[in-house]
Structure formats: structure tokens, C-alpha cells
Amino acid sequence: MPTPSRPGRGWLLRLVIAFAFAQGAVSMARPAVSYRALSLGADERAIGVIAGAYALLPLFAAVPLGRRTDHGRCAPLLPLGVVLIAGGCALSGGARSLPALAAWSGVMGLGHLCFVIGAQSLVARQSAPADQDRNFGHFTIGASLGQLVGPIAAGYLVSERDGAMARTSALALLVSAAVAAVSFTALWRIEHRRTAGSPKPAADKVPVGRILRTRGVPAGIFISLAVLSATDILTAYLPVVGEHRGIAPATVGLLLSLRAAATIACRLVMTPMLRLFGRTALLTTTCLLGGLLCAGIALPVPVWALAVMLAAMGFCLGVGQPLSMTTVVRAAPAAARSTALALRLTGNRLGQVAAPASAGLIAGVAGSAAPFVMLGALLVGAAGLGLRSGRVPAAESAPAPVAAPDPAADPVRAEPAPDDAEEPRANRNPA
């Protein structure tokens, strides 16, 4: 039985490389879209709408794509995602109006969703049970590397001098399309010859309503939504804050990449932190500190202080996604883990639609830094839920060994997040 699960790790290395380029393209395009919108005359409200459009199509497509991947192959979603990412980036660079920019940003978001669902499902199916923690961790580090490099590249390509922002932001988006296309070089024969899990009987399908009513699932979804919304708003609105405070685009790119580097550092030390503090304390504390730091961005601090705050916030936000993922997996019925994870991704996309739109309204009334106060309050609320949801997995740790059937059938890991957070559980069960 382990034989098909250990065919070598060349496929994982190729997947990490492909996702690093795909994520790098998206991370480069998101701030470039904001600068492109500013060059087209967008105000804070319009920036919020365009940032929300990135998640609009994925909001409706997440669960159907998750169901489809549950009973089919994973690999076809990867090139499809790359095509949509590259096309959305290139067409955003040529957009001449704000509605067109919002539409192509939505195409880019749909492509990212396709790639994430296909790639996470591939890792889940082709990893032996003992290797899943490590393989998901490596996979997510690759994504974080893309988040690290992308904003720096965008910042150096975009220039506001002499009214050049319209041209340079378009160039940054075209370059991001080319970066996404590089992913194709690593996608050959990445899925092994295995049927993608036998379809489950209709009777085994747990209704969505029942999953959402399961204690712990809504809390995990909300925590993930809050953390992702903070990261998303930061990417979309830091360029606006930089414009108002006279911070150059290259510096803004470095600040965003500093946040991503801190997230990588956090995920590298996730397992020792869990052993030292425990899941509940770690999740609650990092959400609370992240909320306070996020609200602090609204203060007119110097650039060096902003860099320190963003590094600390990036470290804190690196905890929320993986731990919210394990919260949902542990709380959900055993027969509906993949659907629960798809619902978690749907919640993420709902936050990516609603949070930027709300941020745009708030920024239009109270200034460009005000959305960070809203996000700070959201993360503080997530900290409270983390305190409650942390008890749910403990209460339900008895059924945790049921995770053993997951190697071939646990279909969709809905969003890139290291499963390092589940390692303590794996260590506890044998004990």
C-alpha cells in the first residue's frame, strides 16, 4: 500500500517550483493592479471594489471545484489555473477602464483558485500519511517564496516619476503574466497514474448545512477569513497608504515582501512553537497581536517603524491559516473533511470580496489608513473565537485517528497552508 504513495519526490519539487512562480505572479500582480487603478483615476472606494473582484468568481466556484476534484484527477486544474492567471495579468495590464481591470482581476483570482485546489489535492493524494505534514510544509514554503519575491519585483518595476505609473504598472502586469507562464515548465507528468480516489456513495455526502452547524467549523472558517482578509487588504491598500505618505513604490514592495519573509520564518518554526505554547494559546495570542499591529498601521509612523510592525504582523499572521485549517479538519465530520475545507476556502473568498469593499467605503470616509483599524478589530474577534475553537479539537481528539483513511481519499486541501500544525496531533495520538 505505501508503494504508490512513495514514488519519489521529484513531483513535489516540480509542484513547489510551479507554485512558487504562479504565486509570485499573483503577488506581483496584486499591488500592480492597485497602481494601475490609481493611474486610471481610481479612489479608495474603487480600489476596494477592484480588490474584491479578485475573489468574486472563486467565491462561487470553490465548492463545485472541490467536489469535482474529489472524484476526478487533480492535474488538469494546474495548467488551467496557470492559463487563467497569466491571461488575467496580461489583460489587466492592457485594461483602459476600471470595470475591465476589475473583470480581469477576477479571472486572475479564478486561476489562482484552480491551481490551489488542484495542487493541494495532489499533495494530499500522492503523499504517504507520515509524509503529509512535511510535504504540505514544503509546498507552502514554495508559495511563500512567491509572496516574498513578487511584491519586490512589482515595486521596482512600478514608477510614479514623471507620470509614468500608467506605463510602468502595465509593464509590471505583463511581466507577471510571463512569470506565471514559467510554471508550465514544471507541470509535466506531475500526477501519477492513479485514479483520483473512488467516488463516495451519495449517502456518504454530508449536507453543507450540517457541516456549517458542526461546532468548531464556523469558528475555523472565520479565523481563516480574518487572517486572509488582513493579508489581502494589506497587499491592496499599502500602496494607497504609501502614496498618501510619500513612500516610493519600491519601498512599498520591500515592506510587503518583509511581511512575507516573516510568514516564512513563522512557518519554519511552527512545530516547536506548538510544542511550547499549545494550539489554543498560540492561535489566540497571534491573532490578538496581529490585530493590534494591523490597527497600528493607521498611525503616521516612520518607514522603519512600519517595517518593524509589518514584520511582526507577518509572523503573527503566519500562524492563523494552518491552525484554522486543522481546526476545521478536526471539527468536521470524518466523511466531509474535503467539503469542509472547500467551505473554508469559500469563506476566505467571501472575506476577500466583502473586506476590500468595506475597506473602500471606510477609506472613502475616514482616510486610506482606516481599513487597517477595521481589520485589527476583525483579528481581535478572531482571537476570541480561537480561544473557543481551540477547545473543540481537544474535545474531539478521540476521533482524530480516523484521519488514517485520508492518504488516498482526503481530496482537497483548499488553501496553501502547512500541515505542520497537525504534527502535534499526530504525535499525541500514538502516545
DSSP E strands, number: 0
Indicate the multimeric state.
Answer: single chain
Give the class from helix and strand content and strand pairing.
mainly alpha
Binned, the helix content reads over 70%
Order of helices and strands: HHHHHHHHHHHHHHHHHH
Characterize the overall form: globular
Terminal-residue CA separation: 24 Å
Sheet with the most strands, sense and barrel status:
none
* Alpha plus pi helix count: 18
Output the radius of gyration. 20 Å
Low-confidence spans: pLDDT under 50, at least 5 residues? 1-7, 195-203, 392-431
Q: What is the averaged pLDDT score?
A: 76
Strand coverage percent = under 5%
Structure description:
The protein has 431 residues and is mostly helical. It contains 18 helices and no strands.
Give me some keywords for this one:
431 residues; mainly alpha; 18 helices; 0% strand; disordered C terminus
Task: Give the arrangement of secondary structure elements.
Elements: H1 10-39, H2 44-53, H3 56-70, H4 77-93, H5 98-126, H6 132-157, H7 165-181, H8 208-213, H9 217-245, H10 249-268, H11 270-277, H12 279-296, H13 303-331, H14 337-366, H15 370-389, H16 391-395, H17 406-409, H18 423-428
A few lines on this structure:
The protein has 431 residues and is mainly alpha-helical. Helices cover 74% and strands 0% of the residues.
